[in-house]
Inverse folding.
């Protein structure tokens, strides 16, 4: 089973941006390009998941504010 290290959102986003730059440059051979693309997909999924969790948390916090305003 593959172990995935979870870094901070900012680190993952920075790494993803670097991979995009490397792929756009076009200097990678096919194998390295494919590996970079796979890494990019994993980083994208982690960033997307982190943002989804943050949106849920913000929703809960906003709902708590509404409840407290009523009380």
């Amino acid at each position: 089973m593959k172990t995935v290290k979870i870094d901070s959102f900012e680190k993952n986003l920075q790494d993803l941006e670097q991979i995009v730059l490397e792929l756009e440059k076009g200097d990678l051979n096919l194998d390295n390009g494919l590996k970079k693309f796979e890494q990019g997909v994993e980083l994208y999924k982690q960033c997307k998941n982190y943002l989804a969790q943050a949106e849920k948390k913000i929703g809960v916090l906003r709902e708590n504010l509404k409840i407290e305003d009523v009380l």
